[in-house]
């Protein structure tokens, strides 16, 4: 398929996304699998959000942040998967230049909020376990809203910076992206301009957006672990650790895949590994989050049962 060019014959106006598989016979199976994953992810996260909203027991800071995380997970998968499903249905693999940059912006906006929101959840656990006497005043409704608003503002600045920076590059061919959505590493590989500034921005902002939150999360959990180990009863220790294990699992999946995706720009060849990491980032992680948070949490399980059956707690 030929790319479209402007009158000067140099500027690419659309990209070709190869998708997950190029074999036509496998595409119906890919469509069914990812449609099911999308519906499961949206349904699971909206169920968690509904449980947090209707269950009085879950009207706490931890679940306020969890509800926000569920909204982000729905948004993150919705930025990438529906457009991929649409291309599979229509057999049209082209995506306009503007649409590609729009997808990149919203993906980095939502992923950036995720970074800071996971940090806020770690801070919440630190205050709850290490500073229980002042917890209610340090993590009041105003503080919760400020943390969420700050997360959105910082992520917006990061996403806008990358989008504006990539828009200054020239794309004069080739225009084939070996992926199923538009993202920075793949676009940088296609540019015929110097991408040195963009790579410096990606590294510098990556340190701020991921490095700083990771340091804060690790520091919080070092203090949490020390406080939990001082608890005398084994039952008390088990309960304290169980409230943190779900969050740590999500943090591990999110940051592990993110670091692998964006901190290896020296590898200029697009590969199927990038697609695998992309699936982990945009599909598997948002799909697993509701399961991770509800699997060992009786309060969430009970709230979900009441939401799904329409029964309210009589207590």
TrEMBL record:
In its keyword annotation, does this UniProt entry include Magnesium?
no
Protein origin, superkingdom: Eukaryota
Q: What Gene Ontology terms describe where this protein resides (cellular component)?
A: plasma membrane
Instruction: Give the matching InterPro entries.
Output: GPCR_Rhodpsn (IPR000276), GPCR_Rhodpsn_7TM (IPR017452), Olfact_rcpt (IPR000725)
Annotated transmembrane regions: 29-54, 63-85, 105-126, 146-166, 200-229
GO biological process terms on file = signal transduction
Subcellular location(s): the record lists:
Cell membrane
Q: How does it sit in the membrane?
A: Multi-pass membrane protein
Would the keyword Transmembrane helix be found if you checked this record's keyword annotation? yes
Q: Which keywords appear in this protein's UniProt record, sorted alphabetically?
A: Cell membrane, G-protein coupled receptor, Glycoprotein, Membrane, Olfaction, Receptor, Sensory transduction, Transducer, Transmembrane, Transmembrane helix
Q: Where is the G-protein coupled receptors family 1 profile domain?
A: 44-293
Gene Ontology molecular function terms on file: G protein-coupled receptor activity; olfactory receptor activity
Q: Which Pfam family is one of this chain's hits? A: 7tm_4
Family the entry assigns: Belongs to the G-protein coupled receptor 1 family.
Name assigned to this protein = Olfactory receptor
Species whose genome carries this gene: Rattus norvegicus
